[in-house]
Amino acid sequence: MAYKTLIVTGSRHAPDSKEQRDDLRRRLDRLRTEYGISEVVVGDAKGVDAEAAQWASENGIEVYRFKADWHQFSRSAGPRRNAEMVASCAEGSAIVLAYCGSLPLSKCKGTSDMVRRCQKREMTIFVVDNLFVTDGVFESVELLKEKRGS
Asked: pLDDT tens digits, residue range 85-111?
């Protein structure tokens, strides 16, 4: 199945090594190839957002950045931005890469919020964190829960 949009969400602290950066880029390449991605939606933060935006630009893929207005909305700025990112995607047009690198998803609060929002929209979500990283094999959130017993 082809999807137009890839939402990328993740830790501001990842990728924290060349290996993680290369891993993130390999996963982005694979998603582009397997799903026909033509645009990337990111949260315009450092870390995974910045790396995904750079990758997309380098590969001629349109990038849509959503900036959180921390000054106006304080602590609710991140969740508001996340809601805008999800709402920007037409029904059935997007998949999600949640990349936490060496952190567990539970420690990536903004990423966890995005995953919950995307689950409500029944989007396909691929999670990479320290609890479940495989050799280039993607798993959906549902399968991850089953394997983790949660």
From this structure: 999 998 888 999 998 877 778 888 889
Q: How many independent structural domains does the chain possess? A: 1
Nearest to 7 by CA among 107, 102, 109, 117: 117
Instruction: Please tell me the distance from the alpha carbon of residue 145 to that of residue 20, in angstroms, as a whole number.
Output: 23
For residue 75, tell me if it sits in a domain: yes
| Residues 7-66 pLDDT 10s | 999 878 777 788 888 989 999 999 999 899 999 999 988 889 999 999 999 999 999 999
Residue type at 142? E
Residue at 3 is within a domain: no
User: If you write DSSP's letter for every residue of 60-116 in order, what string do you get?
Assistant: T-EEEE----HHHHGGGHHHHHHHHHHHTSPTT-EEEEEE-TTS-GGG-HHHHHHHH
Could you tell me which residues come within 8 angstroms of residue 139 by beta carbon, excluding any fewer than 6 positions away?
126, 127, 132, 147
Q: Give the burial class of 44: count Cβ atoms within 10 A of its Cβ; 0-12 exposed, 13-18 middle, 19 or more buried.
A: middle
Residue 42 in domain: yes
